[in-house]
Design a protein that fits this description.
The protein contains 14 helices and 6 strands. It is mainly α. Keywords: Cell membrane, Membrane, Transmembrane, Transmembrane helix.
Amino acid sequence: MTGFLSLFRRLEGPQTVGRGPAFWGLFAVVLAVALAYPLVSDGYTVGNTVYFFVWVFIALSLCLIWGYGGSLSFGQTAFFGIAGYGYGILTINFGSAYGFTLVALVAAVAIAALFAVLLGYFMFFGRIAGVFLGIVTLAVTLMLERFMAQTAGPEWRIGSARLNGFNGMSGMPPLTIPWPGGPIVLFADVGLYYFVLGLLIFVYLGLRILMNSSFGNVIVAIRENPERAEMLGYDVRKYQLITFVIGAALAGLSGVLYTVWGQYITPSSMGMTAAALPLIWVAVGGRSDLTSTVIGTLMVLAAFQALTIYGSQYALVFMGVLLVLTVLIAPNGLVLGAMNWLGKLAARLTRRAG
């Protein structure tokens, strides 16, 4: 019981914005709206909403590595693609019976995390940092994208799963949950919406607890001054590697859910544009806070989606301009800046009322 209360208290802390009854009351209202949303919308629109939720996981992964850890990584889409292809290869070969898709989900995320362990070990224990870490992760991402794009021939297959080169893999089965009355198949509509929403809440709250723990405090200390953290006795490389692997697992989860949602995965998901977009979402939202990252990602994605429908030629230009304006006007993030301003305003009004 004491341990549970301790975890509950860590939902609030110095490393996350938002605390007290007002914040959690608003959180409950937003959650209630999200839960009721499928009741007032059609299945197609709800399925498209899942697409937005899927990208929040990769944004949170970058928030963890870059915002809290201070390591700018272009490799999140590499982990995204590895897990997406891993899920496709496993489920095409072994099918979806007996809940194997859930096993494939966990295994694909584990494969992405294992790759991160190998890559991160050589980077962090090799003392690669700063801009060079970004260069290495970008090189790995583009190398994987180029490699997968040339696997079009019939010889490029793993079991019965063809990689299909630039066209990518398709036809993967959706997530299937074993159930006494018959398996529940989560197509891209209401069922998958609630599954992904539940995962998103779990990950968000879990990351709040993690970042307000002693581990999170050390990660932020390393970001601010790694030499001082090392002098205090912390193994900086170990903490950076653990953060990198957790972030890779979240990016991998995003890749699997994307593959489940669309039932396809292509090498372009690891391309230059795909690698840059999460940076813009996180920068605009506010890279040093989880809540602002979630809000910023959903807002920018909604704007980007509207532009791709009504003015696709301006969509990427808009994203570039948005990033430049964010860096010039609010380098800590537009959403985080607005949240901090609202917090100060609320505190001032409370003092006057008191």
